[in-house]
Amino acid sequence: MAAAAASRMGPLADALEERGHEVRVLSSKQASSEDPRVQVSRFETPSFRSSLPRRLVQEMRLGRDLGRLLKQLAPKPDLTILTSPPFFMACRCARTLRRLNLPYVLDVRDRYPRVLFDLGLVRPSGITGRYLQRMERNAYDGARLVATVTRGLTEDLGEVAGKGKVAWFPNGFDGKVFAKKASFPSKDRPFTVFYHGRLGRFYDVEALRALIQETERLDSNVRFRLAGDLGAVSRNGDWGRAEFLGEKSLPRIADFLAESNLGICLLKDSEAMQKAFPAKVYEYLGAGLPVLATPVGELTEFLTERDAGIVFPKADPQAMAQAIVELKADPTAWNRMSDNAWALRSSLDRRDGANRFAERLERIHETSVKGKLN
Asked: Are residues 203 and 315 in the same domain?
């Protein structure tokens, strides 16, 4: 699946198998059932377009069904890795594992319910907010380890779950898939700005749309391509000549990135997003693409320190459009940032990170076995 959770867990499953462990993967209905390791639920991944109450129902239903599959596993797993989001699904699975007295690790990619509070969808002091915080704390309390993807999240979760229980395992790109380097466009190829993934609640959709319009006004030879499940978004408002490519496999995304010149990631300006580092950005960098990003936070600091992109403290479509046009006219600057991005490959390959994650899981299992023997 070309989804963030699957992209992170796939290389980890491979790393564990390569180290001699037996791996089973429980996933949603959309996952490939051709892989013998995979068992799929009767339910699909919750829709990011759903309202919060409907998403709650979808996630709880999926979590309940995955719990059913967990109970049926034979032999019982020595260790289970849960990934969140989906938050409610992960909490439901965590509760099932606690009842079965089976150890688990919780891998957190976005801090729920904090992001719901930041977006103003739920009040932390309300009944729903307090219930969600209790769910979160119970999931952390029962986990042998809480893994997460950014330094900011590591600090945040350490305050809730305990610093000794939280470990930082950054996201990355899959070096086996993203292996082609982008190049500055020739005269017969347009300068291409690329986005892939969902445009959900955390992304500044209107700023992106305004940026496309303003860039096309300044230079009609700049091309925007957007890949992902974006059907509803593409029908809302004027997107100029932007190409909507639909959902694509990761190998196809890698091909598109190699043909592009700038990756883009415009997050909403919130406390949660200031600590975010979306997986798509690693994939841009893995293809040697400079990245245009906002708002100020962990992501923009990373790009600035490594001179691998153009950053803005907040979304400013006019200023960002001007920066794109100037980069198009300056191949020297583009090549410098592209080379800097490409040079990061060895430190950002998700499969290397998966091996470090697997080593930590092995130590957890060894400790558990020794505890049982004693």
From this structure: yes
Instruction: State the angle between helix axes of 87-99 and 127-142 in degrees (0 to 180), rounded to the nearest 10.
Output: 50
Lowest-confidence region among 45-59, 182-196, 286-300, 302-316: 45-59
CA neighbor of 337 nearest in space, from 184, 179, 174: 184
> Could you report the per-residue pLDDT of 122-138, keeping only the tens digit for each?
999 999 899 999 999 99
Degrees, nearest 5: CA angle 264-268-274? 90
The total number of structural domains that make up the chain: 2
Please tell me whether residues 27 and 163 are part of one structural domain: yes
- 265 close to 255: Cβ distance less than 8 angstroms: no
Euclidean distance between CA atoms 34 and 23, whole angstroms: 15
Give the SS3 label for residue 224: strand
CA-based nearest residue to 216, from 206, 208, 227, 224: 224
Torsions phi, psi of 202, nearest 5? -90, -5
> Strands, E, within 228-325: which ranges?
243-246, 262-266, 291-294, 309-311
How far apart are alpha carbons 170 and 186 in whole angstroms?
Answer: 35
Number of Cβ atoms within 10 Å of the Cβ of 236:
10
The number of beta carbons lying within 10 Å of the beta carbon of residue 218 is 14
- Residue at 183 is within a domain: no
Per the confidence metrics, is the pTM higher than 0.85?
yes
Residue 195 is encoded by which pair of tokens? 């986005």
Which residue type does 358 have? A
Is 199 a domain residue?
yes
Instruction: Please indicate, yes or no, whether residues 150 and 223 belong to a single structural domain of this protein.
Output: no
Pairing of strands 191-196, 222-227: parallel
Given a contact cutoff of 8 angstroms between Cβ atoms, the answer to whether 202 and 267 are in contact is: yes
Q: How far apart are CA 178 and CA 274, in angstroms?
A: 26
Q: What Rg value do the Cα atoms of the chain yield, rounded?
A: 21
Model confidence pLDDT, tens digit, residues 11-30: 899 999 999 999 999 999 88
Full residue range of the structural domain in which residue 337 is found = 191-348
